[in-house]
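Quick start: read one record
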Amino acid sequence: SRRAHFTAPSHIRRKLMAAGLSKDLRKKHDVRAIPVRKGDEVIVIRGQHKGREGKVLSVYRKKWVIHIEHLTREKVNGASVQIPVHPSNVAITTLKMTKDRESILSRKADGRKARATRAESA
């Protein structure tokens, strides 16, 4: 529901703020999407800034957005501000790998394989 979504605590928002993987990463890891993290490299695939690439500078869970390197605009007074982008509008091109992330990817891939074999046998 809308209420559950917009009042979700930070640990739930992390999962809700997931982004799809690029086609080559999807093929490599056999995983469709993963929560975005600071340090990932992404490409914007929807909206006004479609095609722009950069590293994730921050994941702003409170506002449901991420900030991407080189995605800024000039304010009238000359100050530069980050343009917020929703994670559903980006694709992850390079993952910042950690032990935890490797285990998440392998666990998700195993689940996909298990579902595929269960579907074949049924």
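DSSP finds four helices and seven strands in the chain.
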